[in-house]
Amino acid sequence: MMIAVGVIVFVLLILISSSFVTVSQGTIAVVTVFGKYSRIMTPGLNFKIPLIEQIYARISIQNRSVELEFQAVTVDQANVYFKAMLLYSVLNQDEENIKNVAFKFIDERNLMQALIRTIEGSIRAFVATKRQADVLILRRDIVEHVKGQIDQVLETWGYHLQDLQLNDITFDDVILKSMSQVVASNNLKAAAENEGQALLITKTKAAEAEGNAIKIAAEAERQAAQLRGQGIALFREEVAKGMSVAAKEMKEAEMDTSVILFTMWTEAIKHFSENSKGNVIFLDGSTEAMHQTMKEMMSLNMLSQQKEQNKK
Fold first, then answer.
1. What are the C-alpha distances in Å from 6 to residues 1, 13, 19?
2. Strand pairing of 27-33 and 20-23?
3. CB count, 10 Å around CB of 178?
4. Per-residue pLDDT tens digits for 161-186
5. Would you kindly state where each structural domain of the chain is located, as residue ranges?
6. What HEC string does the chain produce?
7. Which of 64, 132, 209, 280 reaches 20 to 30 Å from 288, CA-CA?
8. Could you give the CA distance from residue 19 to residue 149 in angstroms, rounded to a whole number?
9. Sheet containing strand 27-33, strands side by side
10. What is the pLDDT of residues 273-290, one digit of tens each?
11. Rounded distance between C-alpha atoms, residue 312 and residue 296, angstroms
12. What pTM value is reported for the model?
């Protein structure tokens, strides 16, 4: 009897201990009764009927990630190699959604195989309509295309695609080499164009500066010539005025005006000698030459007097 009682107590303890189940945080437990779905258990301490209710699966509701490596072919027959990171999670904790997650696939391996192949097929179908030169700039478009198509499929499985990152997009070595050559040639072309533009700007600015310098020099020469002409005119005007005043005074003093001309002639010779700076000046110093010069100067004086009388 004691042995029987001990066995019964032991069995009861086992049954009682097996009646309590602890579900970890971030996990949902699926309970079945004789192989049929019964209910779900949330995180924490839960009670189940011993020997009748069984824990079929523990489903994590946390984010999960997986890395993908696959190949696609563009419309111009270029091989493109992708390395991607997939981030997904259970859609929500609703009972129906948890049932989909628990019973859609036999195990986790089959789920991952279907998920990876579906994403690879979607990317391959998109890349097959693009040229290899456009693939690198279509990274965001590829991700949006995949998410737009995969989300609907994943929802029927009870999952949601959180993010898809295309970490690396590469081509065959031959294509990469040709792309590098194209980039290098474009850079050389841009450098040549920039150098030509810089040279053109330099030449243009130099020509503008030279033209402006010529204009400034010409304007300065014009103004100097104008001032020299005005100075000569003023000098002649003052000489004429002085000669008129001197001739008038000579007439009032009843003296011959030829004395003025003789004085101007001697002053001119004196000026020549003082300012010649070593140059040789040949002058006819004969009496006939002096008389000839005096007659010419007196004739000029008479012409000026006649003009003054005509004006009066």
1. 8, 11, 20
2. unpaired
3. 12
4. 888 888 888 877 776 676 667 777 77
5. 2-60, 64-171, 180-252, 256-312
6. CHHHHHHHHHHHHHHHHHCEEEECCCEEEEEEECCEEEEEECCEEEECCCCCEEEEEEEECCCEEEEEEEEEECCCCCEEEEEEEEEEEECCCCHHHHHHHHHCCCCHHHHHHHHHHHHHHHHHHHHCCCCHHHHHHHHHHHHHHHHHHHHHHHHHHCEEEEEEEEEEEEECHHHHHHHHHHHHHHHHHHHHHHHHHHHHHHHHHHHHHHHHHHHHHHHHHHHHHHHHHHHHHHHHHHHHHHHHHHHHHHHHCCCCCHHHHHHHHHHHHHHHHHHCCCCCCCCCCCHHHHHHHHHHHHHHHHHHHHHHHHHC
7. 280
8. 44
9. 36-41, 27-33, 53-60
10. 776 666 666 666 666 776
11. 25
12. 0.51
* Separation CA 65–CA 89 (nearest Å): 9
In one letter, which amino acid is 121?
A: G
Q: Which pLDDT belongs to residue 241?
A: 72
CA distance 118 to 112: 10
Terminus-to-terminus CA distance in the chain, angstroms?
175
User: Which fold, 64-171?
Assistant: Tetrahydropterin Synthase; Chain A (3.30.479)
Instruction: Give one word for 66, left, alpha or beta, with left for phi > 0 and alpha for psi -120 to 50.
Output: beta
- Please name the residues in contact with 159: beta carbons below 8 A apart, sequence gap of 6 or more: 88, 89, 90, 91, 101, 115
Q: In the numeric block, which tokens belong to residue 102?
A: 């628990």
Q: How far apart are CA 164 and CA 86, in angstroms?
A: 5
Please state, in angstroms and rounded to a whole number, the distance separating the CA atoms of residues 264 and 274.
Answer: 15
